[in-house]
Amino acid sequence: MKNDLEIHDGSEDALNLGVYLALLLLTAATLAASLLHLGGRIMVVSVALIIASVKASLIGFYFMGLRRDRAMTFAIIAIGLLAVLILLVGIIPDMTFARF
Questions:
Q1: Buried b / exposed e across 67-88, counting CB within 10 Å, b at 16+?
Q2: Residue 3 within any structural domain of the chain
Q3: Is residue 75 part of a domain?
Q4: Total domain count for the chain?
Q5: Is 45 a member of any domain?
Q6: pLDDT value at position 1?
Q7: CA torsion through residues 40, 52, 93, 75, sign
Q8: Which one, 11, 25, 45, 91, has least CB within 10 Å?
Q9: How far apart, in Å, are the Cα atoms of 59 and each of 17, 21, 80?
Q10: Which of 100, 87, 99 is nearest to 45 (CA)?
């Protein structure tokens, strides 16, 4: 009987490389969103938070092994989405009425 560490094929490496490249692309998208000033500060911050939550999900699913735990995954997604929603609702008044 072989251990999980002994079984190794190229598919896991390809998946890790794909996730890594997706994280690099999302980082570039965050930078582009901050430089383009699309729709004002509220839109830029909202887009940045959405991209950050997608990046956190990718890291959690693929590098922390959460994709193997189905029930816990849904709970973590729900908590993450709730946190992003609270942050968005909390910063909208500040971004709307603050003078910088």
A1: eeeeeeeeebeeeeeeebeeee
A2: no
A3: yes
A4: 1
A5: yes
A6: 46
A7: positive
A8: 11
A9: 12, 12, 13
A10: 87
Tokens of residue 52, six digits: 């950050």
The structure tokens listed for 24 are: 């690099």
Q: Could you tell me the two tokens for 4?
A: 């999980």
pLDDT at 50: 86
What are the pLDDT digits (tens) for 48-81? Answer: 888 998 898 888 888 877 677 777 777 877 888 8
Q: Is residue 49 part of a domain?
A: yes
Q: pLDDT tens, 5-28?
A: 555 666 788 888 999 999 999 999
Residue length of the chain: 100
User: What tokens appear for 41 in the block?
Assistant: 């500060």
**Sole residue written with tokens 């890291």:** 59
